[in-house]
């Protein structure tokens, strides 16, 4: 969460510029506000010794309540559902992969988007697939593969026509622009990979 908050803060302007092209220009500011709040919540939860599952449920709730835009409830719901899928003080790669899958499923249920709709799902879904394909590897290896898959999915949103969210109002004119939510998803998976790499 620290690494994600730092990555979002470092890329705030870029995320908002992407959103200005096909949305309302607030994606960077929305997430910067949300992850600033998450960073504070997270430090307190760590100090309290809260376990990984309840930790994710709690920070997901913080995102939902601190972000006005569509992305906050979507990411917050994903984190909450991932947290509910984790139990105990530690998790191996297979357990984290299953938790990520539960998070993605909840996000898709809430937003109704599928791969190809030009949303964060286009980065999130391949990332979860790559993570789960590396279930027999260590966490850092799985996270590195997930980050690479998220970045590929992110770049693949450029030629797509948006079918969900604000960008869908543009119809054909959404073609040729990279999706801001897919971009923030890729940043978060890269942050996860870097924080797990020794
Ligand atoms: P808003 O559109 O409310 O201003 P943001 O700018 O914070 O919200 O987030 C926009 C991003 O949210 C989009 O780039 C897209 O990736 C994602 N998004 C929007 N609607 C959906 C949806 N229904 N399902 C999945 N992702 C979505
Ligand atoms: Mg926006
Ligand atoms: Mg908005």
UniProtKB/TrEMBL annotation:
GO terms for cellular component: cytosol. The keyword Protein biosynthesis does not apply. Signal peptide: none annotated. The keyword Signal does not apply. SMART domains: Dak2. GO terms for molecular function: glycerone kinase activity. It comes from the Bacteria. Residues 1-194 form the DhaL domain. It holds the Pfam family Dak2. GO terms for biological process: glycerol catabolic process. Keywords: Kinase, Transferase. This is Dihydroxyacetone kinase subunit L. It comes from Yinghuangia soli.
């Amino acid at each position: 969460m620290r690494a994600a908050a730092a990555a979002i803060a470092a890329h705030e302007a870029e995320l908002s510029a992407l959103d200005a092209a096909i949305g309302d220009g607030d994606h960077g500011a929305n997430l910067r506000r949300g992850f600033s709040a998450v960073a504070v919540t997270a430090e307190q939860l760590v100090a309290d010794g809260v376990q990984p599952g309840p930790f994710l449920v709690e920070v997901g709730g913080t995102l939902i309540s601190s972000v006005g835009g569509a992305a906050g409830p979507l990411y917050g719901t994903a984190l909450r559902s991932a947290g509910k899928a984790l139990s105990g003080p530690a998790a191996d790669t297979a357990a984290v992969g299953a938790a990520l899958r539960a998070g993605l499923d909840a996000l898709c249920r809430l937003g109704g988007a599928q791969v190809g709709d030009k949303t964060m799902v286009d980065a999130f879904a391949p990332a979860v697939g790559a993570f789960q394909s590396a279930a027999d590897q260590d966490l850092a290896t799985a996270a590195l593969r997930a980050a690479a898959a998220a970045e590929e999915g992110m770049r693949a949103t450029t030629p797509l026509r948006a079918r969900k969210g604000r960008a869908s109002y543009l119809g054909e004119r959404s073609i040729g622009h990279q999706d801001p939510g897919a971009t923030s998803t890729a940043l978060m998976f890269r942050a996860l990979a870097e924080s797990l790499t020794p």
